[in-house]
Write a sequence for this structure.
């Protein structure tokens, strides 16, 4: 048995030293309080014994749902009365079919499924964008080549995933057995998020509003995130005087002071970033200026629960620009730009051919200027997309850049670029390892 999650959480927060990943995927169940358990998975499942069946928060993902059910059965054989979706991401809802199978095997009714009303249109959108979502998740979590035809024809939302049958708009209260549940709607990582206050346990189930990493509100490949409302939800949760705070990724946090400090710190970090971006926009700054002039203090990013290992501030800045200012970045040449191929061909012509671009890209990469190196090699690629010399240099440059990045999102995209070029050279599809631990 690994270190108890609350003991580990206390140690990491109080010391400020992260000597082990706070996001664990062990499938182990630990009791957090009498009648409260946590199964650490991807994502976690919080379990409440109500005296009239179990209530779980989320069901984990399609690959881990059955293991979660197995761990749950070893703790309690009571039927699952309800599953509460904190939001509709597949790693939170995809395991529900394992819960359904368990209920069917025992002759029990299917669990009631509670979620915000926006979960259902999210599921519909997943069907509309099934191919795109397959591609971006393979890129984000596996660094897969996006030109090698690796996307699957299977649905993005697994068949058999339970849909909510009990929905609400802004807030809802419910009593199941001996336990009261207060469901609260908020925006943050998604537009369909629920955080829940359980007064008998002085417990908050937070979903992904706290992930033991810098908030995931800038993801470059996903739909709009909501940093303003995210910060507001953190302050609302901090005001509840909870003694136990359980997110869906990372460790539970115990103690009212510790909980409040963590939540307010993350809220203030987002609020300060939002204010800085808005001040710059209101002064007439364009996106390029904002990206290269605004940052989060380094000591903030060293806190155990704010490290930029999944998302990162630069991506959040871009998302804030999209939220408040649209997609035009302030450079008139990019309002209706030339094609990449035309621009690459012109740059190569001015440079005296593709080889000088390759040589310069390799040189500046060796000097550590990966931003410039990547742009130069992309010009070369656009000019001669079939060139083995370009692809060899490109794979080398993006490998070096990936090594200097912290966030999984950047690492995944740069690894995907490497895979694309390796496929162009060899014609062989590189092996893909999906990375589920977002601290890796």
């Amino acid at each position: 048995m690994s270190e108890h999650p609350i003991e580990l959480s206390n140690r990491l927060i109080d010391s400020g030293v992260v000597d082990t990943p706070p996001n664990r995927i062990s499938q182990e169940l630990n009791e957090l309080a009498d009648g409260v358990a946590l199964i650490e998975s991807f994502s976690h499942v919080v379990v409440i014994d109500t005296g009239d069946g179990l209530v779980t928060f989320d069901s984990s993902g399609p690959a881990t749902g059955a293991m979660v059910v197995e761990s749950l059965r070893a703790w309690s054989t009571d039927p699952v009365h309800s599953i509460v979706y904190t939001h509709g991401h597949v790693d939170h809802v995809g395991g529900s079919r394992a819960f359904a199978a368990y209920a069917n095997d025992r002759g029990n009714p299917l669990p009631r499924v509670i979620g915000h009303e926006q979960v259902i249109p999210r599921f519909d959108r997943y069907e509309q964008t099934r191919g795109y979502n397959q591609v971006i998740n393979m890129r984000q979590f596996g660094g897969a080549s996006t030109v090698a035809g690796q996307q699957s024809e299977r649905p993005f939302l697994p068949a058999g995933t339970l849909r909510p049958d009990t929905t609400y708009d802004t807030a809802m209260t419910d009593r199941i057995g001996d336990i009261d549940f207060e469901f609260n709607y908020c925006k943050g990582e998604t537009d369909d998020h629920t955080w829940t206050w359980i007064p008998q346990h002085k417990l908050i189930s937070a979903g992904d509003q706290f992930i033991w990493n810098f908030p995931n509100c800038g993801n470059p490949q996903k739909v709009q995130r909501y940093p303003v409302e995210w910060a507001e939800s953190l302050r609302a949760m901090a005001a509840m005087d909870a003694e136990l705070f359980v997110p869906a990724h990372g460790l539970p946090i115990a103690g009212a002071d510790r909980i409040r400090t963590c939540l307010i710190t993350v809220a203030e970090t987002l609020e300060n970033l939002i204010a800085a971006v808005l001040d710059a926009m209101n002064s007439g700054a364009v996106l390029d200026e904002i990206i290269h002039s605004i940052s989060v203090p380094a000591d903030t990013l060293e806190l155990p629960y704010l490290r930029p290992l999944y998302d990162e501030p630069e991506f959040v800045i871009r998302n804030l620009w999209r939220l408040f200012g649209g997609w035009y970045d302030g450079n008139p040449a990019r309002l209706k730009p030339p094609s990449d191929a035309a621009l690459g061909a012109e740059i190569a012509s001015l440079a005296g051919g593709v080889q000088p671009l390759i040589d310069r890209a390799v040189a500046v990469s060796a000097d550590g200027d990966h931003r410039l190196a990547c742009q130069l090699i992309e010009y070369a690629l656009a000019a001669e997309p079939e060139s083995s010399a370009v692809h060899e240099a490109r794979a080398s440059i993006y490998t070096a850049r990936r090594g200097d990045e912290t966030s999984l999102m950047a690492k995944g995209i740069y690894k995907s670029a490497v895979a694309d070029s390796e496929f162009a050279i060899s014609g062989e599809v590189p092996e893909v390892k999906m990375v589920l631990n977002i601290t890796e």
About this structure: The chain is about 45% helix and 15% strand. Residues 338-404 form one domain. The CA atoms of residues 29 and 71 lie 6 Å apart. The longest strand covers residues 179-186.
